[in-house]
Amino acid sequence: MPQTVTTPTPETKTRAKPEKPPLYKVILLNDDFTPREFVIAVLMAVFRMTEGEALGVMLTAHRRGACVVAVYTREVAEEKARRATDKGREAGYPLAFTTEKEV
Ligand code: TYC
């Protein structure tokens, strides 16, 4: 009976790296009308910040015009920016959060 010779397939040494999803910043924009305490309350509720963290982010946006709040995948960033902006609108304030893709 003839012998079948099988050459073993060499083990693949390089693996395809699973791509990391792109990240998006949520940015808080300053305005002249939304009360500081309201901005802090929204940051605590939507972004789960402590009062101290929220105070720091609010003051940075107030002084510099904008502040990065946090970084998430696109869906999470857009959802949180929308929820936070809606809270302002529901209360009659022009409070605005935007999202921006990280480079
Ligand atoms: N500038 C607002 C005021 O003086 C407070 C404020 C801070 C509003 C940060 C928005 O993103 C903001 N009442």
Automatic annotation (TrEMBL):
General function of this protein: Involved in the modulation of the specificity of the ClpAP-mediated ATP-dependent protein degradation.
GO biological process: protein catabolic process; proteolysis
Name of the encoding gene: clpS_1
Subunit structure: Binds to the N-terminal domain of the chaperone ClpA.
Matches recorded under NCBIfam families: PRK13019.1-4
Adaptor protein ClpS core domain boundaries: 19-98
GO molecular function: peptidase activity
Protein name per UniProt: ATP-dependent Clp protease adapter protein ClpS
Family that this chain belongs to: Belongs to the ClpS family.
Species for this entry: Roseivivax jejudonensis
Keywords from the UniProt entry: Hydrolase, Protease
Disordered: annotated span: 82-103
InterPro entries the UniProt entry points to: ClpS (IPR022935), ClpS_core (IPR003769), Ribosomal_bL12_C/ClpS-like (IPR014719)
Transferase as UniProt keyword: no
SUPFAM superfamilies documented for this protein: ClpS-like (SSF54736)
